[in-house]
Amino acid sequence: MSDRATHFSRLRGLIDEMPEVEAEVARLNRDFDVTHAHYQSLLNSLEREQVSREVFQSERIDLHIIDPPAAGLEPVAPNRMILLLLVFTVGVGGAGAMAFVLSQIHPVFQVSADQFRTVGVPALGSVGRYFSSEERQCRNLEYASFAVCLSLLRVAIVGAVLFEALGPGLRDML
User: Fold this and answer.
1) What is the DSSP string of 57-94?
2) Measured distance CA(154)–CA(29) in Å, rounded
3) How far apart are alpha carbons 24 and 31 in whole angstroms?
4) In which band, very low, low, confident or very high, does the pLDDT at 70 lie, cut at 50, 70 and 90?
5) 3-state percent breakdown (helix, strand, coil) of the chain, nearest 5
6) Which of 83, 114, 141, 157 could cross-link with 109 by S-S, CB 3.0 to 4.6 Å?
7) 8 Å CB contact between 109 and 115
8) Using an 8 Å Cβ cutoff, are 88 and 161 in contact?
């Protein structure tokens, strides 16, 4: 019976060792995979180095163009000068159209004859607007600033067109 008991206790000890052995096998397999991957990368690096060394030593490089690059004859962007002039024209035209629409929504009669032609009712009289000297100065300043801004806009457009036509242009600057 003692032989059987020792055999039983030895088997129980093996059962307890089994998870430890499996864990050790898993760790060894993982270490082997990492080492094998590192070995393969070193082997590939060595092969590339040998090929580049052979090419450098032979100094004979044959390049064959399989598919030559092709550039289209059509530009990939619109003509910038025409685009600049078109944007300027549309902007000024849009501003003029907006001013016209606003004048139609909120009409102002400058003289009483305009009122008679538009409404069909004669005006008994009209009251002119009186501007004080401060108001006249402020209004003249507004007109002058508008004229300066319009002139600067024209200069900017002419400068941009000349920059595109005579200078390097935006395409070459980028």
Assistant:
1) HHT------SS-----SS-SS--HHHHHHHHHHHHHHH
2) 77
3) 10
4) confident
5) 75, 0, 25
6) 114
7) yes
8) no
Integer-rounded Cα radius of gyration of the chain = 45
Asked if pLDDT for residue 61 goes beyond 70, the answer is: no
Chain segment 109-156, per-residue pLDDT in tens: 777 788 888 888 888 877 777 889 999 999 999 999 999 998 999 899
Specify whether the backbone of 128 is left (phi greater than 0), alpha (psi in -120 to 50) or beta.
Answer: beta
Residue pair 157/85 in contact (Cβ under 8 Å)? The answer is yes
**Owner of token pair 């530009």:** 75
Q: Residue 160: how many CB atoms within 10 A of its CB?
A: 19
Q: Are 164 and 80 spatial neighbours (Cβ–Cβ below 8 Å)? A: yes
Residue 133 to residue 141: CA distance in whole angstroms: 12
Exposure of 59 in the CB half-sphere (CA atoms within 13 A): 0
The CB-side HSE value for 35 (13 A sphere, CA atoms) comes to 6
Residue 103 — pLDDT band, cuts 50, 70, 90? confident
- The owner of tokens 């000024």 is 92
